[in-house]
Write a structure and sequence with these properties.
2 domains, about 300 residues, two-stranded antiparallel ribbon, Rossmann fold, single chain, DNA polymerase, domain 1
Length: about 300
């Protein structure tokens, strides 16, 4: 499937792109959002850890784009290394891209037989096969429950340990079959959906990367600049929602009259109280946008 950037217009509109403004796309992917920012006159520092994505975008020869290989959790450091002391906006489009899902060799999808990898950067770190075959039953259960919110996490972990006792689990199809046998089919989703999500997030330290990216973005963006984040899982959306709310703070009434602001610095304004979701038309044309949520803040004070 061709990669279609989710909430493209909504996300770029939310950044309030200005002619000559500087914007960090911390999850460059195939540069869908970046190209729209460039079209509107902004300059972009695009960051990605996927060599294939970087090669593809580099070949486009986009004017006004700097590309850096790295993790979005390091976006502040990468920006400084590229001469950007501050930015007018930061965009994070989290999750897995269509090319990554559709490439069986990447091991992200249980719908396609391939090696159990799931690494965004295949040159570093543990693969999903390393995790599945090397971690203890309790550790596997905790990860599948915490990152996948899988109610049958203990059964899945026990089934994995039992299966690998006979031989190493190497492919996506093998793991999907193990999970399905452990918890059965219920509802419209494949039973391996949550387990695969959990393993992908664990392998790529997605929650840790997100926390570091938000910290860096809050420091990097100038006053009046915006941070836009697109999430696809309830877990990551909750992290973003809580972090933004903490920095938006609240006015607390004082006993003697008046009020004071309480919250974390820097102080921000939440641009839209409710998360922006894909339209019915977008969902129809791109089913992967169904679970997408966009949250945006504007930095008010340092």
């Amino acid at each position: 499937m061709e990669h279609v950037s989710v909430l493209l217009r909504e996300a770029v509109d939310a950044l309030d792109v200005r002619q000559g403004g500087r914007y960090v796309d911390g999850t460059l992917g195939r540069a869908g959002h970046t190209r729209e920012i460039l079209r509107r006159g902004g300059e972009v520092l695009g960051i990605d850890r996927d060599d294939e994505a970087i090669a593809e975008v580099s070949a486009m020869g986009l004017k006004g784009l700097k590309i850096a290989k790295g993790e979005h959790g390091d976006l502040e450091r990468i920006a400084h290394e590229n001469g950007w002391d501050e930015a007018d906006g930061v965009l994070l489009d989290l999750g897995v891209s269509s090319p990554q899902l559709d490439d069986a060799g990447r091991g992200f999808s249980f719908l396609r037989e391939g090696p159990l990898d799931m690494r965004m950067d295949r040159a570093h770190g543990l693969s999903a096969a390393d995790v599945v075959n090397g971690w203890g039953e309790q550790e596997l259960a905790e990860v599948i429950w915490r990152l996948g919110e899988e109610r049958g996490a203990r059964r899945v972990a026990a089934a994995i340990v039992k299966a690998r006792a006979g031989r190493r689990i190497e492919t996506t199809a093998e793991l999907a079959e193990i999970v399905e046998k452990a918890i059965g089919r219920h509802g419209g989703h494949h039973p391996a959906t949550r387990t695969f999500q959990a393993l992908r997030m664990a392998v790529n330290d997605e929650l840790g990367e997100l926390e570091r990216a938000l910290d860096g973005a809050l420091r990097l963006v100038k006053r009046g600049g915006r941070i836009a984040v697109i999430t696809f899982e309830s877990l990551t959306d909750t992290v973003v929602k809580r972090r933004f709310a903490a920095h938006a703070g609240r006015e607390v009434s004082l006993q003697g009259g008046g009020s004071r602001w309480e919250g974390e610095r820097p102080r921000v304004r939440i641009v839209s109280r409710k998360a922006v979701k894909a339209s019915e038309n977008e969902i129809l044309n791109n089913p992967r946008s169904r679970s997408a949520k966009l949250r945006v803040i504007e930095k008010e004070e340092i």
